[in-house]
Amino acid sequence: MTVKEDEYYDGLYQILVNILHHEQLSWIVHDVTEQIVMGKVKIPTPEEKKKAPRGKVPGTYSTSYTAKERVQLLIDSIRYIVVNNASIEKEVLLFYLEPDAGSQTQKRPQSVVFSSQVEPEDVVVIDRQQSPLRYARAQKLGMVLNRLQELLNDGH
Asked: What is the greatest pairwise CA distance in the chain?
């Protein structure tokens, strides 16, 4: 990879980081940064250990991510956290809030609340009005991320 390509991917990465900060999703950037600092960890398989020359057992090591791989890691994280989460939210609503054949529509709950036993202040409310809009936006974001991934795979 050339220096110009690295600069291009670094710029793209920074644009995505700025968007995440603007959308108050800095924690995603933090998590991805931790992964980047750790690097790609390579643990030898049992087969690789068997094939190693006698007395030379391959060890675990880490290599750095390329600029392009860092962008791909961030894109994958956004897709996993934002886009997939909206799909999960939609399925939760369908499961908990859809009426049964015998239920009365006036008595159906309007939202589902999740709280953490580990961190009680972390509460997530999934409501009937907001979820479809979030899902639609997440699907659009997913299409943008897919297109961006295609461009990266094509070498742009």
From this structure: 74
Whole-model pTM?
0.76
78 vs 107: which has the higher pLDDT = 78
Residue 18 belongs to domain spanning: 3-97+110-153
Closest CA to 79 of 33, 140, 38: 140
Distance CA 44, CA 60 (A): 6
Other CB atoms within a 10 A radius of the CB of residue 44 amount to 15
Report yes or no on 102 lying in a domain.
no
Number of residues that make up the chain: 156
Q: How far is Cα 79 from Cα 93, in angstroms, rounded to an integer?
A: 20
Please determine, for residue 67, whether its predicted confidence score (pLDDT) is greater than 60. yes
First to last CA, the chain: 12
